[in-house]
Amino acid sequence: MTQYVSRSGLSVAGELAALVEDQVLPGLDVTAEAFWSGFARLVTTLAPENLRLLDVREELQVQIDAWLVARKGQPWDSAAYRAFLEEIGYIVEEGPDFEIGTQNVDPEVATLAGPQLVVPVMNARFALNAANARWGSLYDALYGTDAIPGAPEGKGYDRNRGNQVMAWAAEFLDLAVPLKGVSHAEVTVYRREGAELMAEANGTLHGFKTPDAFVGYTEDGAKASYLLQHNGLHVALQIDPSHPVGQDSPAGLRDVLMEAALTAIQDCEDSVAAVDAADKTAVYANWLGLMKGDLTETFQKGGQEMTRRLQDDPEYLDPQGTPFTLPGRALLLVRNVGHLMTTDAVLFDGEEVPEGMLDAMITVACAMHDLKKTEGLRNSRCGSVYVVKPKMHGPEEVAFADRLYAGVEKVLGLPVNTVKLGVMDEERRTSVNLKECIRAVKDRLVFINTGFLDRTGDEIHTSMQAGAFVPKAEMKDAAWLHAYEDGNVDWGLKLGLQGKAQIGKGMWAKPDVMSEMLVAKSGHPMAGANTAWVPSPTAAVLHATHYHEINVVKRQDELKTRAQASLDDLLTPPLLAGRNLTGEEVSRDLDNNCQGILGYVVRWIDQGVGCSKVPDINDVGLMEDRATLRISSQYLANWLLHGLVTEDQVMEALKRMAVKVDGQNAGDPAYQPMAPDFDGVAFGAARDLIFKGIAQPSGYTEPVLHARRREAKALA
Known about the structure:
Keywords: Acyltransferase, Cytoplasm, Glyoxylate bypass, Magnesium, Metal-binding, Oxidation, Transferase, Tricarboxylic acid cycle
Cofactor: Mg(2+)
Strand content: 15-25%
Strand order of the largest sheet: 3-12-17-20-21-22-23-24
CATH topology of the largest domain: TIM Barrel
Largest sheet: 8 strands, parallel, barrel
Radius of gyration: 26 Å
Distance between the termini: 13 Å
CATH superfamily of the largest domain: Malate synthase, domain 3
Subunit structure: Monomer.
Number of strands: 26
Pfam family, one: MS_N
Shape: globular
Protein name: Malate synthase G
Number of domains: 3
């Protein structure tokens, strides 16, 4: 039972009040009274508007449903549909052209292109791993994954595998930092000659094709680290002839260190299972530790106790011998929750306050510890706080977020626009009004991105009454999705994000399949995105190679000349439109989606795991969070509504797949089987997500998950 204390007319969970007053506020020029009274004013002023905006979502959906039902069975009429959406205010009038005016943005966001990690901040170990993923070993990323064919043999170092790795890395170096007249594979010595780095091969010295590729070094006898730069990213040649790997390299090259995850999103939203005051306090405590720089996590690995902490900044000498440092950690953004949910961590007049408002107040206050620093483990060197804001529907909701963070800045005494916002383009009303969404936050915008899963979930929910959707695997080839992905980049470039903000793309979901990622994910920088999500530090290292292959700035310049993506395509849902599926096709998709829902939900509900590698129906591990769940549950709700499956078929599939999921988790001592009774809280949650899917606001999974997780915690 949560114990509350009274603060400025608010009832604040005791553990949260203690965190804020004993750990967040000391060292800041903000008193506890100013903090809580300021937050109370924000709630009084803005919470009613938050509720009104949620009502608008529902009102628009009711009108869309009615329009679609009235035209059931008729051919799709894009012009009539677009006119209707304009008439009801779903599509807003487009204003004149403009460019964003965001200032004081760190280069990792504004000018550099590279991978971005997303990690649950509730898990301190994962949070630290992501923060420390700025630098990673290319040799390790290749050696231990399927990025190159085969796998290591034996328990010790596999020299044959190591030689494969070195050959792959040499080809990469030839692409990114080529030498004159020779391959890196032929080098026998890397040697600094004054302010130049030279490579000896076949008895001859060779310089680099790009004269300014060499930017720094450290040397300690035979050991050295030579720092190179290409497309704004650094690569360090680590020389150590005495190392087992270096001994097998003619040049003594023991590793290639890659600058990888330039940025990382510490997530308070889709990848965490934070359902009550205790959970929220844990989330905020970890974010505070990252901003102070003192977060640590001790754990057992391989029978040994290890402690993870934030990495220091690496130190180098420039070619003239002047010392300098580079950032040792990814620039951290924090993803707050959207406008929908409330939290019992703070009550106002006995009612839960909007969770997004509490996130805004506390995560920004935590980040003020970073703003006060002038040296050491700093996050932003430009004096900014980076917040990613998800699940906003249209310009009015984005403008509300701008008001909220402006209000937080005022309470905390921060200059206007200290808080920078990333707008996730994952709801259809945002996609069709993206220009005006950007306008609503044009002086603090640092990020727009696309995400197939949430966006498809909203596509299905918004168009639920239009008809049955095509099989899920086919949706990625639908015209609306191409218009969505291209339109996001088109508007980002047209409205001046280049050189000021990130244009991002979504997650690679298979953390154990790096060979496919190396082929597929080059498509993200080719699409004009200067960042894209990866599921692990290893994936960040490998994805970083794509930003050496492709100069994103040049690619963006090429894309500026293409025609704007079609709004009519964007508004056309991917429907079966009378096409009949075979029984096998229906059964396969039903089983696939039921298995995926159960595999994720059972960990979320029973163990509070918000993001994990969940085996799919073919036992391939996929990184899953609530976005995956949203699309699967809405997809089956759509097929139920339109008669492709029956409730009995769904229940049979859920029970059948529950047995499979139980088997996949048999090795987890904390796992609670769903079969044979099928009456547990987790199984009930999966059932609700499908059978009550149409009634869920915007098709979101949070209301069901939060209620069921609280139920499971109470039973435990």
